[in-house]
Write a structure and sequence with these properties.
- The two termini are about 35 Å apart.
- This protein has one domain: Nitrilase/N-carbamoyl-D-aminoacid amidohydrolase (4-Layer Sandwich).
- The strands form three sheets. Strands 1, 3, 4, 5, 6, 7 and 16 form a seven-stranded mixed β-sheet that branches. A six-stranded mixed β-sheet has the order 8-9-10-11-14-15, covered by helices on one side. Strands 2-12-13 form a three-stranded mixed β-sheet, with no helix packed on it.
- It has helices spanning about 20-35, 65, 85-90, 145, 180-185, 205-220, 265-275; strands spanning about 1-5, 10, 40, 60, 95-105, 115-120, 130-135, 155-160, 165-170, 190-195, 220-225, 230, 235, 240-245, 250, 260-265.
- The protein is an alpha/beta fold and about 280 residues long.
- Helix 1 (about 20-35) runs parallel beside helix 3.
Amino acid sequence: MRIALIQLAYGEGSEESVEERAARAADLVREVGRDHDLVVLPELWSAGGFAIDDWQERSQDLETVRAAEGTEGTEPDWPPALAPLAEAAKETGVVLHTGSVVERTAEPGEEGRHLSNTSVVLGPDGRVCATYRKIHRFGFGSGEPRLMEAGTELVIGDLPAPADALTVGLSTCYDLRFPELYRAQLDLGAQLFLIPAAWPAARVEAWRLLARARAIEDQCFVLACNTAGTHAGVEMGGHSAVIDPWGTVLAEAGTEQEILSVQIDPAEVARAREKFPVLADRRL
């Protein structure tokens, strides 16, 4: 299975609109889509991971997108951040993890908030095949916890062809610090973790270490797609990576905008678990 991670970058003071950023991301998807089975974008690329003051203005209505999940023949009312990406997925026939966007809901959630950090995965026909609302919100009471509802559902499943070789678990950025989430995904059959992020440079060594740890401890592939550039004055960490079930880094980006292209062997999950059956020794 051939994977591409698109490590997008935005410079300080960028005046790009959501539509302009979406068009640029879609062009990159078109550039690599036909040669890959799965393409992944980073977290909050359309709004800025730390551009908190812009989140409301750049939020997206995903009501019809979420309603279309898993259905055939249903065309959602695509919001500006996703419309060009859906077209790019259809044009190239690739499975596309669109990273995440700030979702805006008409009705408040349990905590009274109208925003969520939401990922959408599209099939090669542009159909919505999975959505995920970020469970662990970063900010220690401010930022995401103050403005966004927490997701409550684990999302595990098989992607459509041509990316159907492994069962996938979805998570986002700060989720990476909570190993119990990945254990739960493992117990539901996950073999590959898809992790878009907006992880800052100040803590990039934690990003690199934790991504490898999740791969090693759960004997899963990890696709960790970070952003580059700056978001609201915060330097982003880059270092997107593809990691195999042994914890070997198959490819790692630098700190600028970059596309990683990696061929993975899905059978390596079963081989790792057979040759080193550590998961069979779990007691808890």
